[in-house]
Amino acid sequence: METIAGYHLKTTLGSGGMASVYLATQESLDRQVAIKVLDASLIDDPLIQAQFVQESKLIASLNHPNIVQVIDQGVSAQGHPYFVMPFVKSITLNAVLKRNDINATRKIDIAFKFAKPSPMLIAMGLFIATLSRVISWWIMTATFAWWILVLQVILPVMKNPI
């Protein structure tokens, strides 16, 4: 198990393709936290490491009651990037939807609460997509301008054009 200064890791809450999440105690405040640690198989990939750090910074920049904040980040003693979030004991939306003791109206209400951050995240996605389109347009425009320069200025003055 990881060694992270200031935290006592207790158990694994879950793991996926990129990272594992541990239940831990933040020693300075004696509170439970969740720590997401990049998988050992990915630490040699600088792009993956950069994306992991970017993910923590993006989450930390969001302020919404349905999004858990990032409260710390760093690198473990084993060299694995991590970030820390408050631990929220809960059940999955899927588990709520399968329960027979909750009526349909309440299930819909809970599902909408899960979906509330979506407009903010969609807006961020649209911003990123728009920025991507602007960059692509700029590259295409620059490439097009380069070919105009080649065809109209450089080739005509060359003695032996291709």
What is the element layout, followed by pairings?
Blueprint: E1 7-15, E2 19-26, E3 31-38, H1 46-61, E4 72-75, E5 81-86, H2 93-98, H3 104-115, H4 118-157
Antiparallel strand pairs: 1-2, 2-3, 3-5, 4-5
Write structural notes for this entry.
- The chain is of the alpha+beta class.
- It is globular, with a radius of gyration of 24 Å.
- The model has no long low-confidence stretch (mean pLDDT about 75).
- It has helices at about 45-60, 95-100, 105-115, 120-155, and strands at about 5-15, 20-25, 30-40, 70-75, 80-85.
- The protein folds into two domains: about 5-90, 2-Layer Sandwich (Phosphorylase Kinase, domain 1); about 120-160.
Structure described in brief:
This protein is of the alpha+beta class and 162 residues long. It is built from four helices and five strands, in the order E-E-E-H-E-E-H-H-H. Helices cover 46% and strands 22% of the residues.
Strand order in the largest sheet = 1-2-3-5-4
Instruction: Give the strand tally.
Output: 5
Instruction: Report the CATH superfamily of the largest domain.
Output: Phosphorylase Kinase, domain 1
- For the record, the count of structural domains works out to 2
The averaged pLDDT comes out at 77
Q: What is the overall shape?
A: globular
Number of helices: 4
Helix-strand topology string: EEEHEEHHH
Strand content: 15-25%
Integer-rounded radius of gyration? 24 Å
